[in-house]
Amino acid sequence: MTYLYKHGFCILRCQPFHIGHDRLIKQMMKECEVGTVLIGSAQESGTYHNPLPYFTRKKMIQNVWRAKEEYSRLQIIPVKDVVNIPWNFHVLETIKKELPDRVKPDIMYVGDQREYLFFASDVPHIGLCSRTTQSFPFLSGNMIRDMISLKDERYKEFVHPENHDLIIKNFYSDELI
Questions:
Q1: What is the tens place of the pLDDT at every residue in 70-93?
Q2: CA of 78: how far to CAs of 134, 154, 161, in Å?
Q3: Which CATH number belongs to the domain containing residue 45 in this structure?
Q4: Is the pTM of this model over 0.90?
């Protein structure tokens, strides 16, 4: 199969991993020979905006993607927040360090064009993929976390069924929110 790009990447916090994130990864894996998902704020957990630890967020992506043929071409790695070095340099160095055998990314997938601005001089292409659709126009991690904290079962419309148990275990049992 011929792909448009060699190596695509995206940065997602996945608090929690939802259908908008999945839509972005699907586009990346359709267009790229290999794809990398960087899970942002990897060092944070147990707070309102970042309740889930990195490995739980990674597990949520794996639960959805492991059975797909494209999974062998997908890597999921952590990226920590930094303040003392440029974000674009930090992200690209993280990819290089964690995945030394991969070629430098030639496209970044984002839900909002502003997310690409830091990377425009280092990554030649942008893959713009809206995380929302006509069916789900107000999709956001904040909205989903609010539903979960209110024990509003409608969150299940936005989170893959493979991850409902992780939501119950990590949000309700531990009372993180």
A1: 999 999 999 999 999 999 999 999
A2: 31, 29, 24
A3: 3.40.50.620
A4: yes
